[in-house]
Amino acid sequence: MVAAGRSYDRRRDAFLAALAERGVTAYGRSGINVWIPVADETRAVTTLRDAGYAVAPGALYRQATPPGVRITISPLAESDISPLADAVAAAASSPPEWGRTVR
C-alpha cells in the first residue's frame, strides 16, 4: 500500500509539474485526483474526450467553487503525462465554439 501511495505521489507531482510548464493551474496535494479550474466545464470535458481522455466535470464534486475538471491519475502511465498535459492545456485555453465563423 505504501508503494502504491508513492507511485501515485510521483505521477501526480509529475502531472502537476507538466501542467505548470504549460501555464495551467492545477491542484492536488495528495491522493489520486487533480483538480483543474476551467472557464467552461462542458467544453473542457468535450475537448478532452475528443482527444481520447475521460475526465469528470467538476460540477459532480463541487458546491461553491468555480468550474473545473477532475482527473484521476491512478491509471495514468508516466509516458502519458506529457501528452495528457498537452491536451489539458489545449482544453483549458481553447475558445468556445459558437457556430461557424463569418468572414
Percent helix range: 40-55%
The CATH architecture is: Alpha-Beta Complex
CATH superfamily: Aspartate Aminotransferase, domain 1
Mean pLDDT: 87
**CATH fold-level assignment:** Aspartate Aminotransferase, domain 1
**What string gives the helices and strands in order?**
HEHEEH
**Count of DSSP helices?**
3
Gap between N and C termini: 58 Å
CATH class, anyone? Alpha Beta
Class by SSE composition: alpha+beta
Please state roughly what percent of the residues sit in beta strands, choosing from under 5%, 5-15%, 15-25%, 25-35%, 35-45% or over 45%. Answer: 5-15%
Number of strands: 3
Shape: globular
Number of domains: 1
Order of neighbouring strands in the sheet with most strands: 1-3-2
What does the largest sheet look like?
A: 3 strands, antiparallel
Extract low-pLDDT stretches: 98-103
Rg measurement, Å: 14 Å
In summary, what is this structure?
This is Aminotransferase class I/classII domain-containing protein. This protein has 103 residues and is of the alpha+beta class.
Task: Note down, in words, how this protein is organized.
The chain is α+β, with helices and mostly antiparallel strands and 103 residues long. Helices cover 42% and strands 12% of the residues. It is built from 3 helices and 3 strands. It is globular, with a radius of gyration of 14 Å.
